[in-house]
Amino acid sequence: MPAPHATPPAADRRRIRVGSAPDSWGVWFADDPEQLPWQRFLDEVAEAGYEWIELGPYGYLPTDPARLRDETQRRGLTVSAGTVFTALHRGPDTWEATWAHVAPVAELTAATGARHLVVIPSFWRDDKTAEIVEDPELTAEQWRHLTAGTERLAREVRERYGLGIVVHPHADTHIDSEAHVERFLDATDASLVSLCLDTGHYAYCGGDSVRLIETYGERIGYLHLKQVDPEVLADVLAKGTAFGPAVRQGVMCEPPRGVPALEPVIDAASRLDADLFAIVEQDMYPCPPDRPLPIARRTRGFLRGCGV
Q: Is the pTM of this model over 0.85?
């Protein structure tokens, strides 16, 4: 395990670039009648004061690169990353299906000029139905498949598309808790695999974001800024509620109303010798169409008060 920095370098918040994502507008799927149109998302994310966005689920935003560039550029927006879901712990037999999902997302991401691909492990519990579909704990063999498969994915994405992968610990996946995140990082090549630290998901699963940044700073390649409501989370954990229903219950909340406190996270991240994206994600699926914009405006104002 890496040791914490003995003498932390000076903070430089200028190296943190703040953006938002379709997730903060209640978008989880490429096409869903409960979600607002993509044009409105782009209009409102720009109106809220953000300059960077993620692509969200592939197919929600236009997949034609020229049209996507036109739609984003005329609103003053730039893409920071694409997102894929993988089930690499299931072994080499899943590779073809994995690559069939990853390749078009990576191609579009690269065409926008972005350089990151956020990789989210598959859920062991369905986020809509709460059905348990796999054991929440991996076997030793499955851990080997996961780490080897992730490194293979990182090589392929880098060589073919010039992108770096950032793996996203996520509630109800096999990379969630502090112990699982550390095991994953210790078993993967630091030159290939970086982490997308989502502060909300990590807190949801009992982790300390500041400690992770201070201990594994060289592995932090990307941030998602998010908070959880501690009272709702306590109820969720006590009842074993799945992540999807927990979101509908309001477990992810508007900052600065939840945990972790984002100022110390931003301070720790700004001391790393790295340029980082910090993408705001407040899971709100589903939500009324007029709810996201006021929250997005207030959140952007709050983050400016934090110096980013």
A: yes
